[in-house]
UniProtKB/TrEMBL annotation:
Name of protein: NAD(P)H-binding protein
Pfam short name (any one): NAD_binding_10
Superkingdom, natural source: Bacteria
Domain NAD(P)-binding: 10-176
Organism: Nonomuraea rosea
InterPro entries found in the cross-reference section: Ergot_Alk_Oxidoreductase (IPR051604), NAD(P)-bd_dom (IPR016040), NAD(P)-bd_dom_sf (IPR036291)
Length: 281
């Protein structure tokens, strides 16, 4: 019989791409679901869901922020015979006041977690904090290349988690026993301020990167001047608020719980990213 594949929804993204790569290195049958994956998948086009789920054993779900689509997707997965779910959620989703309660991303994660827990299937939920890769692959990279991290983060710190650790935990949950019913809070082993991040990246790249703290209003005004819609600029500022308020500095031991080893440090991430040319213009 042909081995049932593991489906990686969002398998071309920061965590999903690493999950797919690790699964393939184990010679597992893997199916990447994305707009440009093994099978075309579009969260907003439900006609693409069944072909992605057909014959699948387990699913790694990277939800669509701002949409309440995880629940119907999970319900469809159950009907089509999936027998294990691993959901990427977010840190602080169940902490009152952690972020703007009206934020779309928070609603996505809360409803998704509830759907997974109520699915009747073995499930695992991952709640990572800020990705370290946001500085090398994500929305902070351009600022790093420009030499200035201009953000409304104050002097708050965050325990940035390496996406490699997220992927390792996801793969363990998808392929091993002992992770069902677990919610893993994932962080790095220490908290860094934005000034600390800038210093770390400066040290491994050999060029100056500095942190420029802005007020939320000044940050929004800068983005609007750059062409952002005001609502989008305010949402971005709101997403940084937990960091500014000191709500992301705490350390979580989910990596050790799941893998029996410590989480990767930001310095190791920065050295690896620099060596790979992440900050070459």
């Amino acid at each position: 019989m042909t081995e049932q594949p593991i489906l990686v929804v969002g398998g071309t993204g920061k965590s999903g791409g690493r999950v797919a790569s690790r699964l393939r290195s184990r010679t597992s049958a893997v199916r990447v679901a994305a707009r440009s994956g093994d099978v075309r998948f579009d969260w907003t086009d439900r006609a693409t869901w069944d072909p992605a789920l057909d014959g699948v054993k387990s699913v790694y779900v990277v939800p669509l922020d701002g949409a309440l689509l995880t629940r119907p997707f999970v319900e469809r997965a159950v009907r089509l015979g999936v027998d294990r779910l691993v959901l990427l959620s977010g840190r602080g989703v169940d902490v009152p006041g952690y972020a703007d309660d009206s934020g779309a991303a928070g609603a996505t994660h809360l409803d998704g977690e509830d759907a997974v827990r109520g699915s009747g299937l073995p499930w695992t939920i991952l709640r990572p904090g800020w990705f370290a890769q946001n500085f090398s692959e994500g929305f902070f990279r351009e600022a790093v290349l420009a030499g200035e991290l201009r953000l409304p983060a104050g002097d708050g710190a965050a325990s940035f988690v390496d996406a490699a650790d997220i992927a390792d935990v996801a793969v363990a949950a998808l392929t091993e026993d002992g992770h069902a019913g677990r919610t893993y809070e994932l962080s790095g082993p220490r908290a860094l301020t934005m000034a600390g991040v800038a210093a770390e990246i400066s040290a491994v790249t050999g060029r100056e990167v500095r942190y420029v703290p802005l007020t939320p209003d000044a940050f929004v005004a800068e983005l609007v001047e750059q062409g952002w819609p005001e609502a989008g600029a305010k949402e971005y500022a709101d997403s940084v608020a937990p960091l500014r308020l000191g709500k992301d500095a705490y350390l979580s031991d989910g990596v050790r719980q799941a893998l029996g080893r410590p989480a990767r440090d930001f310095t190791a991430f920065a050295r690896e990213a620099a060596a790979a040319g992440a900050w070459q213009a």
